C-alpha cells in the first residue's frame, strides 16, 4: 500500500512539476516576475516601507497563493476528464486526495520560497541603492526578521492550502453556506494587505522578529491537524459528490414558469445572442441564494466602513480608491484564465465554430465580464454613498466636500476603469505567447504589474497629497498621456487575441500531460 501511494505521489507530482521547468515560460515566471517586482519596489517604495513590512506583504501574498491555488484545484477537479479514472483507483479516497494535495503543497513551497527570496532581494537592492536609512535597516535585525518570516511562511502554508481544498465539499446543499466564511477570510486577507501597505510605525511594531516568531509558533501548532481535518472534510463530502457529478449538472435547477417562458422567446440575433450566452454563466452564479446573502453582508459591512472613514477626508478618498481596485484586478484575472479553462473543458472549439468573427466572440466575452464588474461596482458605490449619508444624518458632519470630491471621484473612476479595460484587452493577446515564447517575457511580468497599480497611481498619477489640494490640469494631462500609451497596446493585444486564440486548443491540460509523457518515454 505504501509503495502504491509513493507511485501515486510521483504521478501527481508529475502533473504540477512542469511549473518548475526552466523553459522560456518558466524563466519568465520564476525570474521575470521577481525582477519586475524588485524593480517596482525600488521605484515605488519609500523609506517608510521597512524590510519587515515588505516581508509581511510577501506573507499575505504567500497565503493568498495557497488559498487560491487550493480552491482552483478543487474547482478544476469537477471538470477534470480523468476524475472517474482517478476515483476508481484501489486506494481510499481520502488517500487519493491527500496525495494530490501533497504534490500541490510541494509546488506551493517553491512558490512561497520564491516570494520570500523576492522580498529578501528587494530589501537588499534598496539598501544597496541607499533607499533605506540606518533606522530602517540593520544587518542583525534584518537577519532575524528574514528568518522569522521564513518560519511564518512555512507555518501558514498548509493551513490556507487546506482551506482552499475544503471548497471541494462546499458545492451542494447546506454546505454552500460555508462559502461565507471562506469569502470573509479572503476579504480579511485583502484588508490586512491594505493595512500593511500603509507602512505606519504603529503597525511596524507588530511586525518585529520576536512577535513574528510567536505568530509562526501559534500557526505551526495547529497546522498539521487543521490540514488533515480540512482534507478529510473535502474527501468525505466533495469526493462523494464528485463521484455522481456529470458535467454541467451543478448548474441544473428547477425552472420557474417565468424562466421557461423566457427560454421560449427567441434570442436576439448577432452580437446580442453572443452576449446573452456569455452573461448566462455569471447570471446563475450571482443568482444563488448563498452568493446573494454573502454579497449583501459584504455590502453592508462596506457601508459601515465607509461611514466610519468619512470622518477624515484622506480616509474618505482612500476608501473610495480601495473600492475601485478589485474592479481592475478581478476582471483581468477572469479574462486571463477563462479561455484556457474553456479549452480544458473542451468548450472552446465549440465556441470558435460559431458563425461569427473572432473579434465579436472576444468582445462579447469582454462585455459580459465587465457588465458583471460594473453591477458589483455600482452596488459597492451605493453602499459607500449610503454609509457616508448615514453618518451625515446621525452626526451632522462628514469630510465630504461636495463638488470638489465628486470631480476627484469621477477622475479616479475614469482612471481605474480605463486602466482595467485596457489591461483586459492587452491580456487577450496572451495566446500569442504559445506562438512565440519570447512574448512570455512581456505578458507574464505585465500581468504582475496589475498588483502594483494602486502604488503606481498614488506615486505617479494621483498622489495622496492631491486628496487635499484637489484636481489640477496636470492630473488630466497624465490621464490623457496614459490613454495615449494604453489604447494602442490594448488594440495590439486584442488583435493578437483574435489571431491566436485557437492556440489554447493545442495547450490544454491533456495536451501538456501528453507532451510531458512523450518526453519521459523519449528519454
Descriptive report:
The chain crosses the membrane at residues 27-45, 57-78, 103-126, 146-164, 176-197, 212-230, 291-311, 317-341, 362-389, 409-429, 441-462, 474-496. Keywords: Membrane, Transmembrane, Transmembrane helix. The chain has 523 residues and is an all-alpha fold. It has helices at residues 2-16, 24-44, 51-77, 83-87, 93-128, 139-165, 179-196, 201-204, 209-244, 257-264, 271-287, 289-309, 313-344, 348-352, 358-395, 403-428, 440-449, 453-461, 466-469, 473-500, 509-522. The chain folds into two domains: 1-247, no CATH class; 271-521, no CATH class. The chain starts with a helix and ends with a helix.
Overall, the morphology is: globular
SSE sequence, one letter per element:
HHHHHHHHHHHHHHHHHHHHH
Alpha-carbon distance between the two ends = 28 Å
Secondary structure: helix percent = over 70%
pLDDT below 50 for ≥5 consecutive residues: which ranges? 251-260
**Count of structural domains:** 2
